[in-house]
Amino acid sequence: MTVDSNEAPAPETESSASSPTDTSAAEPPPTSSEEQPTSATASAGEANESGGSTKESDRVKPRRDNFWLWALGILLLLSIELLVYGHNGQIEVCVGIDGVTDFSLKHQARTKETARKMPQCASRLNLGMYDKTEEQALEALTDACGRATMVNKGEIDNCLHRNNKWTRDVTKTQIAPWDRRLYRRILWLE
Q1: Which residues on adjacent β-strands are paired with residue 96?
Q2: Which residue would you say has higher pLDDT here, 10 or 134?
Q3: Closest residue by Cα to residue 170 from 145, 143, 137
Q4: Rounded mean pLDDT of 144-162?
Q5: How far is residue 72's CA from residue 98's CA, in Å, rounded to a whole number?
Q6: Cβ distance 87 to 127 under 8 Å?
């Protein structure tokens, strides 16, 4: 039936219009490619239409909660931040005279025989998101050279600039995320 733009459409009669609750007249029958309803789903559909309830397993499950994905992501970012925060976290500078000082003795107990061979060491914490390695190393070097030249203050410049057989050993270590020093710095306890 075609409708002219000048003519009003003919009103539909009750027999030609389908009721709003009757959806079977508007929907075509399922084709072979569509899923055929099984007897379990058909009986569940009939139970719903008749006002009955369906089983819990037949209902559509809600979308999965992403809480654990968010929690895992936050923990991952926190662990990466702690690794970056503790990178080169401790700087230890040891100084001594070349040929006299043995740097392998630096963490051993001082005895009368090894007193002259022991290096003078100073360590600094370098914790934070911004790297202050050079400043902390220079401060530790100044402190170690001050200790090493306590008797002869004229040698401090030679120690700082590696002149007259002065040598140094700089060790940078990572502070682990579970180390107490890291948490004390993060929580401003130090």
Answers
A1: 167
A2: 134
A3: 137
A4: 90
A5: 52
A6: no
